[in-house]
Design a protein that fits this description.
elongated, TIM Barrel, 15 helices, homodimer, 8-stranded parallel barrel, methyltransferase (chains A, B), 635 residues
Amino acid sequence: MSEGFYNCSVGITAPTPLGNLDDFVEDATQTGHDFVVVPIADDHYKRVLFEEADSKKQLNEWRAGLPLTPKDLVLKKVDWAGVCTGIFSDWIDLESEDDLIRINSEIALKQEATWAAHLGLPSVLLPILPSNTISNFARVMCSLTNILSYAQILIRVIISDGSEATGWTQWNTLYNLTEQNPKLNVALELSAQLPMEEDQIERWYSMPIKAVIIPANVFISNQKGFPVLPKRHQSFVKALMKKFKPSIIVTASELGLHQAGGPSAYQEYIRYLNRSLPPPDDVERFSVGYQDYLQAPLQPLMDNLESATYETFEKDPIKYQQYEKAVYHALLDRVPEGSDVVTVIMVVGAGRGPLVNCSIRAAEKANRKVRLYAVEKNPNALVTLQNMKDEVWHDLVTIVFSDMRKWVAPEKCDILVSELLGSFGDNELSPECLDGAQKFLKPDGISIPSSYTTYIAPLSSSKLCHEVAAYKDLEHSETPYVVMFQQVSHIAEPKPIWTFHHPNKDDFEADSDPLHNMHNVRFQSTTFQAKGNITMHGIAGYFDSVLYKDVMISIHPETHSPGMFSWFPIFFPLQTPVFVPEGATITIDYWRLTDNKKVWYEWRVGQSLNVVDKTIELGTTPVHNIGGRSSWIGL
Amino acid sequence: MSEGFYNCSVGITAPTPLGNLDDFVEDATQTGHDFVVVPIADDHYKRVLFEEADSKKQLNEWRAGLPLTPKDLVLKKVDWAGVCTGIFSDWIDLESEDDLIRINSEIALKQEATWAAHLGLPSVLLPILPSNTISNFARVMCSLTNILSYAQILIRVIISDGSEATGWTQWNTLYNLTEQNPKLNVALELSAQLPMEEDQIERWYSMPIKAVIIPANVFISNQKGFPVLPKRHQSFVKALMKKFKPSIIVTASELGLHQAGGPSAYQEYIRYLNRSLPPPDDVERFSVGYQDYLQAPLQPLMDNLESATYETFEKDPIKYQQYEKAVYHALLDRVPEGSDVVTVIMVVGAGRGPLVNCSIRAAEKANRKVRLYAVEKNPNALVTLQNMKDEVWHDLVTIVFSDMRKWVAPEKCDILVSELLGSFGDNELSPECLDGAQKFLKPDGISIPSSYTTYIAPLSSSKLCHEVAAYKDLEHSETPYVVMFQQVSHIAEPKPIWTFHHPNKDDFEADSDPLHNMHNVRFQSTTFQAKGNITMHGIAGYFDSVLYKDVMISIHPETHSPGMFSWFPIFFPLQTPVFVPEGATITIDYWRLTDNKKVWYEWRVGQSLNVVDKTIELGTTPVHNIGGRSSWIGL
């Protein structure tokens, strides 16, 4: 992957007044710009508002369909169309209280859009969002998507300076009014002052940003007089480049606000920023193509994993290192140095053997004698295990072909090693499997892992919302997905909901199989405090696990084991996006439920608002995935 | 229709302690009760909570599936099952914070439910709703609907006395948590004090009430010592009987709170109330079978109405009376008494001629000379018109077969009479039709109607919500329906949104056809103040019309023309129910939009809350029916 991994195209807006269009486009190209941003119509076209309404006849003829005239237009021919983003007229007022202006604005906007579609412009830019009501604007945007079926529609939103979050609020309302129409995108315009609060910046990561507009006055001059961005703007723009690869549009460059660099200075600086992004790290490289992509979680208990899946996960540089460390410390703690005691280690769910190798390496390093069993129910993986035994392990390892819940072990072990964890901790049924396997763990034996904890956080992501909605059925809106998050924003920090400990000596006779699975039922109600208004699309899930004492693995964002790529987060969608008002308390209820054949999760989200002396309930989603109707994990 | 039109069945709850079940059922039947309400399980069954948890082994065996024992049961055999409503144990606590009690309660409830299903009980009654959290309860109710696929599930809710609206709030939350599961019904228990505010009573009309529980202590004694209900209870129970025909359950009758009447007194009083309901009036009789039933609005412009449709609407006793009055006053105003002037009346959209007859009667009464044209585009109706001319009207009436928008009239008229109105006023395209017809109205001519106004109100109705949801598609959730409202509750009083006036002399040349239809576009944003928390399922639409001066017709609930049955209200659904918190302001935006081929409505609902010094936005629905994608009226 080259330096150009996060390359963005850079464009420039036409000066006012424009002068000669051909010259401008030629200059822009020669100064290194990839595209230009040009008004579709001339100011002359404002005539169609008929604000005076002096001629009813002309008004009616125009409303009946009279086309644009050449005098009305800036973009007249298709010569440059391929590199032009068309700007709609800024006098168009879709929220005017004056019926005449509002209705004529709509007709005019559609005329400009039809013309833009006719020219084949690759994208169009709407005027800045109205600051008061917005429902007419939203309605017209929806009908615009039919006219502009090929062009990218960019809605211009100014990121506010934090005191009044108008740009965000208006866009978010617009987006909800249009049912999060996937044809509508944000052209985010930076202001000289960015919002003070980091979450007011980060919430934009949940939105479909396709362009970033940087006015020349946002740039400061460096010591040599060249335009550069202030530090905070820099890091925000870099984050946007990584997450969205947006087009960058420079406006007002013709004002000559910066002494040095000439007309290509802004463009060159943006490309410099682009190049200065660090190349993707191991995890990022591993994730290419998976960002915001919904994957069904593995069901390794019901299904047999494929060789390629083992292959991929065995490459994790961190996970096995941590397991080795855990076994190493367990051995040191359990057996005195120099002892001849042979420690029996059973690796349950051995797969193709990586945890067997970890355990052997740990024993060598600890200088402790061990004997191992590798228990695996997948017959295909067993072939590899058998090979390993024949060629490497020999008598050190006994291979067992069995479901660990059914196996009748010839002896009990000192250390039970397993890795049956999913992105949500227990979602690959580690609790149920280990309930069955702990029969052959000695009363004072050690389970690695010794516990795992599940975390959740309310999440906003229009991208994930679109991905789920694309399935157009109930089932997919109640199914958890494994996702490498990219265009998402946490509405609040993750919180733990439950923990499983192993071995489990409290809930049933340690030596026998459990009669039922009710002890693995969990329920937790958790509250989160939302800061600004935002739309919630689902719940992010994470886990961490204590392998042994202080040896941990984690995919919790705050404590993520660096470089470990075996688990992406999990995402539980909501059937319908939930608007979270400023200051609301979000309550998320989670259930882990079970019957004789399966395990499933149910979840629901409620909201309330504390107002002076009372709490006002703001409603609730339905309980999702009732009875596991849409998604479950087979026992 | 007999006195028994609103008959309800009456049942009685078993006393505590029950004694002999057979005797109780026999007594109850002999004292005139239709059914009995009996516990499914004995108190002995509470053992399964294992609150002491002294025997893990027994707990686990029970959890693994040990069935109920005879000692656990009250209802043991199927003898009486057909007349029994089973009550679940009241110690079942699905919201306990103690995992043991909560999980065991769920298992116990399901065991009782399975037993009730096995016995084939026609209905079951849940314990009183928990008063704090309710999401576990809701989740379990959903899974109960699978066990009890044939029995009616009654959730017991106590109507509160108004100070704390716990019963309502808890039920409403429960219902939203279960996605308004149509298998869940309310058994509404009356308290001695009903809520003070009328809207706290009326909002129950939007809920699926299948039973009303009346404890004996709610009855007062009349002069002779017989139990009777207080006035307010009486009228509430009567309203419930009319709307829901619920089962009535009397509880605690064994306490002997009333001196006279004996064990059958309550039952007899309820049947007396039942009989005292006035028989259905004309409109109600006309509406039988149509209550809360969704009908697609007529499209008389695109489709030709059938003979039966004309037949039905011609029977309206009020509408034609009002039209006759309107024409009568118009004639009196327009022509001096004794004048020989012949007034030309054109009836456009004459159908089978009722408005022609009205006009002739009006002229006779006014003693004015008239000449009439009957313009109709439906060839089938024309046959009847021609018959009428041949047999009754002769030269007085000229029959014209034409679309009124296309007709080239041989002369201009003095009075243009039409009835092209829909439940939403303009939704059968009266504005567009009269735009075309007014060409042949004299400059000083009179249009009857002279105007019509559309009204909307936010509406709650679980019934209508279910009806729409049953279609399981987007289209039906964005289509307006004509509905005779019954199980509904207005969230706020209706407000006007727009008016059309005729003739229209402002928007285009009076003598010519309009070049376009933009002058019939309408937009209105209206706010409503909600009182208590409630769930909004859609919008009710009404109209009134000034036929001439003070001669009106109206289907607005406050001013409804008595006895007029030609129009039911209209209902615009919401895609997803909207929870309306206490004190919220509801904003409804409505659009009437048009292109060359059709007219359609779009709508959206937003909410906000005024908190001390600021307004907090609570979110918005999407704009519904964008571009008329789901419903429209053909021009």
